[in-house]
Amino acid sequence: MRKTTPRWDLLLMTLALAGCWETSVTAAADETALRLLAEARSENYMEASQNWMRAPYFETRRSSMSPHGPNVDLWVTRAVVEAFENNSDAPDWPVGSFAIKHGYDQDENITLRALIKKEESGWFFAVLTADDQIMHSGSPELCVSCHGGQNSVFRFIDFPQ
After folding, report:
1. 79: CB partners within 8 A, 6+ apart
2. Contact 77/99 with Cβ under 8 angstroms?
3. Does the residue 15 lie in any domain?
4. pTM reported for the whole predicted model
5. By 3-state DSSP, what share of the chain in percent is helix, strand and coil, each rounded to 5?
6. Domain total in the chain
7. What confidence tens digit (pLDDT) does each residue in 89-132 have?
8. For residue 38, what are the CA distances in angstroms to 4, 31, 35, 41?
């Protein structure tokens, strides 16, 4: 059996630890995604409430050209609407701003849930299947490339005029 040199041992250990770190980061993001969905459900996000409402101009399901699906529903916390009303050009979304978009296929079957929440540490994204299996969570490039989210000004949605 051939022994590795200390330099190779260090490289192998670094690679192994990097893989563990990535796994723990992913697991933590997935856990956060499920916690946020449970939080929104406990607040009955799909019903008008003290904290949630349908996004302006999304009072009913709308057709969409977004990657979320050809038809979408969108619910937001009232803080999102207030930020938009205060500055529609570049709203400064307050910490706690939260939105959930449901994507539907042509036959009106739900295909995904997309969650976006501004936390103290920045924007958190998650995309889940209709049966709550996590597809993406954390800050996936897939989400960040469209929505930005590098600071408090966030390309979230252009409410129709």
Report:
1. 93, 94, 96, 97, 98
2. yes
3. no
4. 0.73
5. 35, 25, 40
6. 1
7. 666 778 888 889 999 988 999 999 989 888 887 788 888 899 99
8. 48, 11, 5, 5
Domain membership of residue 62 as a residue range: 39-147
- For residue 37 the two structure tokens come to 């969905």
Decide if 4 is inside a domain: no
Instruction: Check: CB of residue 153 under 8 Å from CB of residue 90.
Output: yes
Q: Summarize pLDDT for 57-97 with one digit per residue, the tens.
A: 888 888 877 777 678 898 999 888 888 777 666 667 788 88
Helices within the chain (DSSP H only): 6-42, 78-86, 141-147
What is d(CA 5, CA 24) in angstroms, rounded to the nearest whole number? Answer: 29
Answer yes or no: is 154 within a domain. no
Q: Which residue has the tokens 């980061």?
A: 25
The per-type count for the chain, helices as H runs and strands as E runs, is 3, 7
